[in-house]
Amino acid sequence: MTAETPGSAKSPKTPGSPESPETTGSPGSPESPETTGSPESPDAPGSPQSGESSESPAKSAAPGPRALARRRRRASVARFWKEYRRHRAGVFGLAALALFVLVALTAPLTVGSDVERVTNAPGQPLESPSGRFPLGTDQFGRDLLGLLIWGSRVSLLVGLLAAALSVTIGALIGITAGHFRGWYATVMMRITDWFLVMPTLVLAIVLATVLSRSLGTIVLAIGVTTWPTTARLVRAQTLAVESRPYIERAKALGGGHWHIMSRHVLPNVMPLVLAQTTLIISSAILAEATLAFLGLGDPGVVSWGGLLQDAREAGSVSSGDWWYLVPPGVGIALVALAFTLCGRAVEAVLNPRLGVSR
Amino acid sequence: MGGERPPGPPPRRLTVGAYPRYVAGKLAGAAVSLLAVLVTSFFLFRMIPGDPVKFMTGRRPVSAEQIAVYRREFGLDLPLWQQFTEYCGKALTGDLGTSYQFRAPVVDKIGEALPNTLLLTGTAFVLYTALGVFLGTRSAWRHGRLGDRLHTGLALTLYSIPSFWLGLLLIIVLSVGVDPIPGLFPTGGMESGSEEGFARTVDIAHHLVLPVVTLVAVEYGQTLLVTRSALLDEMGGDYLTTARAKGLRDDLVRRRHAVPNALLPTVTLVFVNLGRTVAGVILVETVFSWPGLGGLFYQALSVPDLPLVQGLFFVFAAAVILMNTLADLLYPLFDPRVGR
């Protein structure tokens, strides 16, 4: 394995061809030693944090690698947050998300799973909004507000899981294709390119049709079709990271493939992956709604897209029952927008040159 | 990205000899992709658990002999590799099988629906591209101002809205009518069927308004955002300062210098975007019962009518591949640095 080491470490074209990935990585690593360096020196003699200095004087003089790493990480998170706060839209998105997550998590307490039951529904079919049912009722007489809140759980969960799956596949393929050169990378990038040209949603629809109807299928269909952009970005970043001298040092010291990829490449790729995740969640939530609306979702669970399909089947479009249609769509749009705003803010912080929200 | 030359040897102008080779390469790539789509579409639809005949017959009770007849009719009794070679051979001669649902060749059903989809997407495509490029340019040129923030915000919001939901709302407000507003547009379909000649054209245009508005609303945002950020990238360029220093009027600097350079990423995006439009059109056609490929896809999905789904999947993927190839072929004509 060390046979290819010198070649792959020196080969990268340093004259600045991968310019933008280089800048993406920079806020993570090269600056952090500086920032950790400055709080460290006043820390040792002054000891404002009694908790750390009370451990042992010897330790504060030369903190262990773990403690150093932890401190560096905390400093970069703080710096990230300070930058992030300057993007007002991003803060708004984050606040909206926190609210939605809170509502979804507390749903069992506020509404309970009884709202899903078709039998023994509390109201008359298709009541318009009233004091008792603030958003009216559906064709079975179920409380629409309750269903909306309950449905947020499925929409958020599927969005998060699908994005997690998508980003995991993308990061895995991106890192390995960037690390191992040769035929493996060629094959992987061919596959990626092929997925990239396919119309994502059409492929997801076909997968959801062919497989059985369940939430797992939806997560799989969305996850398997949306990873290629992540893979490309991560691969570019991996190539940039692996051209740095400390990777060569790690290899010279006998670091194996796994060590290099997990300890050196992954932490540097992480910020990019984070930004990508936030953006993918929003499209995954939209995709889930779309699949459910086309009748490809799990018929047994309530989701926002499923509610819209129910509304359409109940004829609420032609009878003008707007209160049945408006809330689920607003929910989908708000959550998707919130994730998009967060993603753009994260991207702008990590890569100021991108100019997305300039 | 755009402004400065990349390091290395100075860019060579596109010579007459280089372009055909570039074209040949891109066309070969497209052919390989199409073949890959064909192979995938075959195997994807063999993943379904159970007998496809069961799908076809639905819940109707069918005798064993009848199932055998069906299986022979659709070639399902042959071994897999034989089905595959037969499928590929037929596909190359333009035969995509027989629809379970309509008992008609898939190609015929697609041929019927294709012009309707082209009418809808074509109109929407022209409108949202023009709107996106126009607003994106203005937004970038006056970035940070109120107008820019409003446009960007609106584009992002519309981008987050599911197209089918927007369509449903438009139907409720403008077709069914909410109290003060009367129903202005038809709720769906492509024509009333009673008109002839010029009146028919007007009638179709009338039916076209809402679906086109929906598609434009959900799609123009992306074009706007990309045009805007491409132009913003360009705006620091020294050549713009030079142009201004020469005393050129602001709008001339914008139109003659900045915009042409910034349009390059937009050109690619415009074509790549068609992939998204394909998905959008499926939903919009479903909502407005437009008799195009998307509406047909929805009908095929609900059965599911596998040969039809398979054929449409192939057509949609092929359309996107062709558009990407077209973008690749056009790109060097705009930017001589591409395509050696």
Automatic annotation (TrEMBL), chain B:
| GO CC terms, sorted | plasma membrane
Pfam families attached here? BPD_transp_1 (PF00528), BPD_transp_1_N (PF19300)
* Positions of the ABC transmembrane type-1 domain: 114-331
- Principal place of residence: membrane
InterPro entries named among the record's database cross-references = BPD_transp_1_N, MetI-like, MetI-like_sf
One biological process term in Gene Ontology: transmembrane transport
For this protein, the parts annotated as crossing the membrane are 27-48, 117-135, 156-178, 198-218, 262-288, 308-331
Q: What keywords does the record list, in alphabetical order?
A: Cell membrane, Membrane, Transmembrane, Transmembrane helix, Transport
**Does the UniProt entry include the keyword Magnesium?**
no
Protein's membrane topology: Multi-pass membrane protein
- Location of the protein in the cell: Cell membrane
Q: Which family does it belong to?
A: Belongs to the binding-protein-dependent transport system permease family.
Q: What is this protein called?
A: ABC transporter permease
- The species is Streptomyces pactum
